[in-house]
Amino acid sequence: MTKSRILTFLLYILTLGIIYPHAQELNCQVEINSSQVQGTNKSVFETLQGAINDYMNTNKFTNAQFAPNEKIECKLFFTIKEVKDDNTFTGDLQIQSTRPVYNSSYTTTLLNFKDTKIDFTYQENEPLVFSENSMESQLTAILNFYAYLIIALDFDSFSPRGGNPWFDKVEQVVRFAQSTGETGWKAFEDNKNRSAILSAFTDPSTSQLRDMVYNYHRKGLDEMSVSPDKGRATITESLETLKKVYAVAPMSVGLSMFKDAKLDELVNVYTKGTQDERERVYEILYSLYPTEQTRLNMIKAGKNK
User: Fold this and answer.
1) Confidence of residue 10 (pLDDT cuts 50, 70, 90)
2) Residue 211 burial by CB count (10 A; 0-12/13-18/19+): exposed, middle or buried?
3) What is the pLDDT of residues 89-111, one digit of tens each?
4) What are residue 49's DSSP bridge partners?
5) What phi, psi does 65 have (nearest 5°)?
6) Is residue 170 classed as helix, strand or coil in its secondary structure?
7) Distance of CA 72 to the CA centre of its chain
8) Could you tell me how far CA 13 lies from the centroid of its own chain?
9) Spatial CA neighbour of 257 closest among 194, 174, 300, 215
10) Which long-range contacts (CB under 8 A, 24 or more apart) does 190-198 make?
């Protein structure tokens, strides 16, 4: 499956001008936790979960061809903290996505992010309408944003900047949403909101994070099944990108997104690394994430327990 998935992505990147039959891209698990909400009809959360599940798993976000076993695995975990009388829901959303590693049973995390600016209105049994060229609601804009981001990062991990068309879609969603004044979209309002995520991957000063996604995954992790030392060396080199981003944008959300997705994995990657390699990686990461001393020490020591 993994080899087929890689070939699918590479073929698509080489043939962007060809229009393929539509095929759904995501295999998305959706969960809503409403335990913090008191005095609200709980059935609304069941219908909301079903509506979001259908939206993410039945809409076609791209023109790429995906076989059923090639769909991108992802999760949306909503924690609803309050429901107001006007049917406004507020809370958090944890977004995760993974992709398979070549010639192995291992899956690697591409995205692991907590959005704390979730605020939308929803009426029970309200249909969620998908549109590429307009903003139907705050909820569908949030779902579109993360669907396109998941797809863009996945394509980037298989081909250099292969996610370009989908980052264009991410930008379009942000542009539509910013015009409404809704929560979580304003530029410079918050260094971890959805506008900041877009900037982290598309601003010229920090967009090299996308090159790192490719080098780390396609040239690093995927190579490790053939040559562990070569693959690990490539991953080590790719981490230098983090230092370059930090130099120009030390508060970039892209840096914290990398930490949340990859730090545990790096502990495992370097259990068999050389001492020089482990010390180099420790020095790179400690300068960026000094509060993560426990995990960084595990990298330096070459231990995962």
Assistant:
1) low
2) middle
3) 999 999 999 999 998 999 999 99
4) none
5) -95, 120
6) helix
7) 11
8) 20
9) 194
10) 190/117, 191/251, 191/252, 191/253, 192/116, 192/253, 192/256, 193/115, 193/117, 194/115, 194/117, 194/142, 194/145, 196/252, 196/253, 197/113, 197/149, 197/253, 197/254, 197/257, 198/167, 198/170, 198/171, 198/174
| Residues ≥6 apart with Cβ < 8 Å to 253 | 191, 192, 196, 197, 200
Shortest CA distance to 257 belongs to which of 299, 199, 297? 199
Structure tokens at 209: 């994070």
As a whole number of angstroms, the distance between CA 153 and CA 161 comes to 9
98 bridge partner residues: 73, 109
What's the CA gap between 290 and 250, in Å, rounded?
Answer: 13
Q: In degrees, to the nearest 5, what angle opens at C-alpha 221 toward C-alphas 304 and 109?
A: 70
Q: What are the tokens at 276?
A: 């020089």
Look up tokens 């379009």; give the residue: 172
Q: How far is CA 6 from CA 100, 112, 220, 225, 283, in A?
A: 9, 22, 14, 14, 33
The residue-averaged pLDDT of 4-17 equals 49
Tokens of 206: 């920090």
Which 3 state secondary structure label does DSSP give 95? strand
Residue type, 229: D
Mean pLDDT on 137-153: 97
pLDDT at 15 over 90: no
User: Mind listing the pLDDT tens digit for each residue in 167-191?
Assistant: 999 999 999 999 998 889 999 888 9
